[in-house]
Amino acid sequence: MMNETYKEYLTYVKEYLIQHRGLESPNPLHPFRSRFQHTIRVLHWCMRLSQGMEHVDRNLLCTAAIFHDIGYGSRDNENHAGRSVQAFHEYALAQGMEKEFSRKVERLIARHSDKSLLKDPETEPEMILLLEADLLDEEGAMGIVWDCMTMGNLHASSYARAYYHIMESSNKEEPNPMVTERAKMIWEEKKGIVEKFVKLLEDDLMIGSEYFKI
Question: Which of 176, 201, 203, 202 is nearest to 190 (CA)?
Fold first, then answer.
């Protein structure tokens, strides 16, 4: 059953993003990316990753997830975390949220773009989970679809161009950045899907065949 409070939060976030032109991606190559849909997926990842973790404040985590990208707009999104904090702060005041709780939410939102916190043993578990959830979105199968849709918008002239783009993007070599065991496993699963896909695609496209040199 959907949490009615979270439903209210999400409705507000969606309306806020629409008003501030932050719902859709400002990048013309990525019109398919929705900041609101990303928010919903991050919320679900937070719920999934935190399941059974009794030491985690799930309400704190989920509230931060819902508001973490509300500050996105049509430009200057490098500072979206700061704008998200301000937007949540104003909403929390209007709703009469408990001050200590809202302060903790603001702290999570303010730092959600700092991936170096994953390597800090002092980072609180809610922050770790929010960072992991944010990173897990649009990886794996979704990453492949993203790459292909981007190539479509570039009017790619061959399947091979999409293959090489996937190799440089979704299939690039990178260490597993996750901290919790569940997130580590999911990350490896996602990367495994991409690796298997590109190997099959490589075979289908006959990449490396000497006949393509004629």
Answer: 176
